[in-house]
Amino acid sequence: MHGNMQQFTVRQIEIMEAATNRISQFGIQNLTIKTLAEDIGVSEPALYRHFSSKNEILQCILEYFKMEMKNRIQGIVHKPDSSARDEIRAIFDSQLQAFVRKPAVISVIFAEGIFHFDEGLTRQVSEIMEIMQGYIKANIVRGQANGEYSRLVGVSVLTTIIIGGMRMTVLKWKLSGYASNLVKEGKTVLEGILKMIYKV
Fold it and tell me: Which one of 19, 103, 185, 189 is most buried, counting C-beta atoms within 10 A?
């Protein structure tokens, strides 16, 4: 299930979008093959021709998001003229904007526990985390090497602090019923962390 956007059929993408909308409106517990079939006006057997289970749909939503995320952030990193600080701000901003556009993805990522350790879902969630960690880690290595960030704290601990700050901000936003301003709050958290690690 790896590769590019083309791996999904138009119909599969349509079903994934419908699932995403349902999750955004009614929560992940409310997603069943039955309700989804009703939403798009097909029979349940017709839907099973495209996906074998609800968990497969969720897995594909994460796979789709993961590919989109890679493409998006790849365009931000490796810009020679931007400082490490500007790069990490852009990564954060891009990721939080993506969550605002597709809040259902967050529900799937954070609901990992309710699937009783479905291996496929757990793998997708940890891959998304690892990709994000990779970008943040590379940013810190660069910032410490060029003297923008202090070397007082090691790379992996800093990465954990930054990703942890992002996760906490996203979780608070989800628990507020998406009422808070995620992008703004994320920015505030990141600027606080950056103040602590700036090389003065």
Answer: 19
